[in-house]
Amino acid sequence: MLADRIASAIRDTGSPDYAVRSGALLALLSDLAREGDLMGMSEAFCAYTTLLPADEKSIRHAVPAKIINQYFHLNRKRSQRAIIAWQAQSEGWETNLATAIGEDVRFDAAVRAMDDRIKQSELS
To answer: I need a labelling partner for 95 at 20 to 30 A (CA). Which of 45, 51, 63, 89 fits?
Structure first.
């Protein structure tokens, strides 16, 4: 259950098992991206940053890489070539994702729109 996973990540804040204080949450965001649960990513981000707002900026900064590596590459199986081509043509995509993560519907729509453009790049 997602709520249990989020609670565990919050409970493990500052654990020595991770290199950074928010490591458990970052690991959960990676897992959710790899599973394709974009709404869950947003929910986990909101729950965590509501309780621990000091980590918000660093977590937002990590989101674009998680989407590229875990969602586009591992979940959606998009080619590295197509992802790189899309990135080169998509100025500001990182900021868009980092800003949208706190709004589940907006984040989900933004990531899916990006995925559609990457898919189109693969078909070209």
So the answer is: 51
| CA–CA gap between residue 26 and residue 11 (Å, rounded) | 13
Task: Work out the number of other CB atoms within 10 angstroms of the CB of residue 65.
Answer: 14
pLDDT (tens digit per residue) in 8-33: 999 999 999 999 999 999 999 999 99
Contact of 119 with 112, CB cutoff 8 Å: no
The rounded distance, in Å, linking the Cα atoms of 38 and 101 is: 9
Specify whether the CB–CB gap between 86 and 43 falls below 8 A: no
Distance CA 92, CA 67 (A): 14
Which amino acid is present at 50?
Answer: T
How far is CA 115 from its chain centroid?
A: 13
Q: Kindly report whether the global pTM for this prediction surpasses the value 0.90.
A: yes
Q: How many residues does the chain have?
A: 124
